Amino acid sequence: MEKLIQSALDARKNSHAPYSGFAVGAAVESSSGDIIGGCNVESSSYGLTNCAERTALFRAISEGHTSFKAMAVVSETGASPCGACRQVIWDLCGDIPVIIAKTDGSNITKTASDLLPDAFDDRQLP
Ligand code: THU
Q1: Ligand 1 centroid vs 89 CA: distance in angstroms?
Q2: Which residue's alpha carbon is nearest to atom 1 within ligand 1?
Q3: Spacing, Cα 126 to ligand 1 middle (Å)
Q4: Cβ of residue 19 lying under 6 Å from some atom of ligand 1
Q5: ∠ CA(42), CA(44), CA(46), 5° rounding?
Q6: Which of 18, 20, 98, 102 could form a disulfide with 78 if both were Cys (CB 3.0 to 4.6 A apart)?
Q7: Which tens digit of pLDDT belongs to each residue from 96-122?
Q8: What domain count does the chain have?
Q9: Which domain holds residue 110?
């Protein structure tokens, strides 16, 4: 868990957040124990911004990882994943623990289903 949080902190250093000034880092641990980090990347058109959680996950998928066992997200205030990220975490990871940490070192752990109860997913597709 400490390694995952440290990787999210490391990824946060690369945050590209010129509009909000709010740096976020995330890291996801694959089933084989690899850790892949990501940061938030903002766009001048705001809505195209990619959160740290999705950056980490999309990076992991693009590098060939397919199964995940935990995620950490770190920000100054201990921000909780946004709605879009909650859906993507559920879709790609299932009911993993999500460590939500502050840069001061404090953290809480929620599960993906805590974050997105009664989720829509591919089981509801025809
Ligand atoms: N953000 C994340 O990267 N993850 C979160 O969990 C919450 C929000 C980013 C998006 C945007 O770059 C900035 O934080 C302010 O919303």
Answers
A1: 15
A2: 51
A3: 33
A4: no
A5: 65
A6: 102
A7: 999 999 999 999 999 999 999 999 999
A8: 1
A9: 2-124
* Confidence band of 86 (pLDDT split at 50, 70, 90): very high
- Give residue 92 CA to ligand 1 midpoint distance, Å: 19
**Burial of 69 (C-beta count, 10 Å sphere; 0-12/13-18/19+):** middle
Q: Could you give the 3-state DSSP secondary structure of residue 100?
A: strand
Catalytic residues: 53
Q: pTM for the whole thing?
A: 0.97
Q: How far apart are CA 86 and CA 73, in angstroms?
A: 12
Among protein residues, the one whose CA lies closest to atom 4 of ligand 1: 51
> Residue 78 belongs to a domain with what CATH number?
3.40.140.10
